[in-house]
Amino acid sequence: MIPRPKQKTPINVTTIQHFNPQPIKADIPTGLENPFNGSVHPLAIQAAEILQRQLSESPSLSNDLPADGNGKMFGVLVVIDSLGELGFLSAFSGMLNQQWLVPGFVPPVFNIEQQATFLR
């Protein structure tokens, strides 16, 4: 059994980026699509394009990105908030700009204070 972290970092509302304008109801999927069937929902593509634009337009983020030929993994997850508005969460693998916590991105899934115990 994997121990759960004692301290959780909640996702706050500033982490969710809302679509503007909000999609019409007919454009919202009723369930998750199979990621292995080769199709990606248009809202996920839109969220990824927004994140790509933000990364390229933000010197504080783009200066730390690897040079061509190397990579950094980013991801988006389309969500509906508690008010029923559609948006997305953004995440990255590892560290960004030598930091685990970067505004606008979800926090790591592990307890940052304990990371030294399993990153040896």
Quick structural summary:
With 120 residues, this protein is of the alpha+beta class. Helix content is 17%, strand content 13%.
Uncertain runs are: 1-11
Sheet with most strands? 3 strands, antiparallel
Global outline: globular
Q: Could you tell me the number of beta strands?
A: 3
Number of helices: 2
The ordered string of helix (H) and strand (E) elements is EHHEE
Strand content: 5-15%
Q: Strand sequence of the main sheet, in spatial order?
A: 1-3-2
What's the mean pLDDT score? 80
Oligomer: single chain
Range of helix content? 10-25%
Estimated radius of gyration: 16 Å
Structural class estimated from helices and strands: alpha+beta
Between the first and last Cα atoms, what is the distance in angstroms?
21 Å
